[in-house]
Amino acid sequence: MTGAATPVNAPASRHFPLRESYTFPPAVIDQIHGMAEEGRYEIRGWGAKRKLPTFDDLVFITASASRYPMEGYREACSTATVLGSRHASKPLELDIPITIAGMSFGALSGHAKEALGRAATAMGTSTTTGDGGMTAEERGASKHLVYQCLPSRYGFNPADLHKADAIEIVLGQGAKPGGGGMLLGQKVSPRVAGMRTLPAGIDQRSSSRHPDWTGPDDLVIKIEELREATNWEKPIYVKVGATRVAYDVKLAVAAGADVVVVDGMQGGTGATQDVFIEHAGIPTLAAVRMAAEALREIGKHHEVQLIVSGGIRTGADVAKALALGADAVSIGVASMIALGCNRPSWFGAADAQWVDASADYAELGTQAGYCHHCHTGRCPVGITTQTPELEARLDPVVGAQWVTNYLRGLTMELTTLARACGKSDVHHLEPEDLVALTIEAAAMARIPLAGTDWIPGWSR
Amino acid sequence: MTTLTPTLFDCEQRSVRDINIELRELEPGSIVRIVNPKGRHNLAVGLMKHLDITFDGSVGHYIGGLCDGVEIQINGFCGWGVGENLMNGVIRVAGNASERAGATAHGGTLVIEGDASTRAGISLKGGAIAVGGNVGDFSMFMAQAGTLLVGGHAGHALGDSLYEAVIYVAGSVDSLGSDARYEDLGDDDVATVTNLCAVAGFDHIDPQNVKRIASAKLLYNFDALKAQKY
Hints:
The complex is a heterodimer of chains A (about 450) and B (about 230). With about 450 residues, chain A is an alpha/beta fold. Helix content of chain A is about 35%, strand content about 15%. In chain A, strands 5-15-14-12-11-8-7-6 form an 8-stranded parallel beta sheet. In chain A, strands 1-13 form a two-stranded antiparallel sheet. A two-stranded antiparallel ribbon of chain A has the order 2-18. In chain A, helix 8 crosses helix 10 (about 285-295). Chain B has about 230 residues and is α/β, with parallel strands linked by helices. Chain B has an 11-stranded mixed beta sheet with strand order 1-2-3-4-5-6-7-8-9-11-10, with helices on one face. The chains are: A alpha/beta (about 450), B alpha/beta (about 230). The interface of A and B includes residues 158, 205 and 211 of A.
């Protein structure tokens, strides 16, 4: 038998260049090899990394002849925000519509939680506990503290409930709607374990559904219990991961919520399966408009306040979320970045020196700018860790100043755009102030494509 | 000043909200009698002191929830979540309890003289629940700490995903949940059951002859190669 003739000295690349498969590119091949060898699947922190339609796909059509602008840097533009005025006798009165999202002590270090509390207080806004309960440091640092009531009820107790300024019943979050939570054993330190009534070092699960109520009809009675237990003083939020947004928002309102929090799929997490982060939920851009329209349909828009979260980074994002119908936004990952997440070095406050952390990133198999290894507890900059030596890398006072500066910058950007749209109050921003740059964004945000009056799916 | 004669609330004449406000204002140690509850929900919740409260009749959901230090007697049946998130104190139900009795309680003692429905002791974090009769399916799901004593029979998936909590059952068990297993009864277990029977006033349980159910601890750390096997 004779083999086929092969041209001698013919470079293979001349006729058959390296060709990457769109379906199975090298990264996917490597992933499958890893799964085949170890049966593993990726667990990680942060939110969705895939490309999604975002607020960047919208732009403001600011004032000119047809609208009258406010004078930037001069004329007042109010950012005051009231949350929980529907039923609570003591609603939250915030100075800005930007709040700090729920992140647990456990996922975050005590220093990180304290820094966020200090910054929120400095800016007159709220911060939020997380799974695992309320720490004394966080309560002490936070003027307005929202106490989460999660399915796990880890560390949930009536004494802290009475100390809270608002209560957030968490049904889900954007990074993992319907998926519950996890805190891997390396972060379940003795203090974290004690607060959660669990053995130290176990891979801790947070259940995906509440233990003492099942559906929206039950939730009515659960919310009434929390109100009766706290004398109808505290606002009650209901937080949902963005999936069936219109139904979920309406059901939350029917159950008696004062505030509905909708967390889009770009929202972050301390740890969950990558398959969840990238393949469940809908983008924040779509979620905010769906939620606002749902509230309008039942005549509750702004009576029940809407907080939107998931990938908010800039004052422009805040302004667009408000224009699409949110009353406030919540930031999680962005506030961590302000604290120094993914920075190549950490700041030693004692001697005012920056210390290179690139070797620590390398040990995690990553580098600054790409790190999502919150789940390991080995955060090179002291934010998502329970290891004292690493936690010491974040000084809570310095960190608080960074977050304060960031929140101040976001607020300045927000009011800059609002003034240019002719608004003396950022809550006066409206969908008519926006146009879309892509067909996808136009359809999701129900905003006309720039230069047209076309809203795909909504107008002809 | 401590009220030695019972303060009376009639649910036919007072709203849940009014009654709860007045309960919060009573001195610690006060004695309260609540009549005609007629299934009202959320009575006596969020109380952070010792009050001796008796309900004459059947009550609704979350009675005694989010309390710390109360002593409640329910002379009737109760709805879901009785003693939900109880921190300390004693709640006694003379009749049957609906779903999720004692859910997420951190401490105290919950005595149910009749039966408890599904998910009794779900996410229990401490304290003790003593049920004279039967408990329904999924009881003690993800219970972390504390004790459940069942004088009758237990339903399916008992103790699914248990952590450090322990269950004692005098009668039969339809099935155990994931990671729950039977373990040998030791002297400490007999003492615990004996003590709990004394507190509950149960004389139909032989502490030497109960089943002990606890966690096999195979789920304490994730193992990808065990995926979907539990």
